[in-house]
Structures are given as structure tokens and as C-alpha cells.
Amino acid sequence: MYVTEGMIVVVVLLMLTILMAIIIMKTKMKETNNGNNEMMMTKTTQIPMMTINFILRLSNVCDWLEIR
Hints:
This protein is 94% helix and 0% strand. By secondary structure, the chain is mainly alpha-helical. It is elongated and about 45 Å long.
């Protein structure tokens, strides 16, 4: 039971991160077409923050599964 629940959670989180990456890439393409270089910089700095948040969420989920 615990293994399957954990696997489902991990898969769902991976899907969400992939979707976020696709959205970021699409916005980057639009921004390059418009020529907004400043916006590109802010987006590239946001990506590491998102990965850190994702790792923190994963650790929280693992703790929650252990408690249950």
C-alpha cells in the first residue's frame, strides 16, 4: 500500500513539474519574439527557486507518507 501511494504521488509531482517546464519554455519563446530580454532574466532566475520548492514538497510528502 505505502509503496503504491508513494509512487503515485511521485508520478503526479513529476507530471506537474514537466507541465511547468513546458509553460516556461512557451513563455520564453513569446518573450524572445517580443524582444523582452529583462523578462527572460527573471524567468531563468525563477527556475532554480521552483526546483528548490519542488524538492521541499517532495520531502514533505515523504514525511506525510511515513506518518500515515
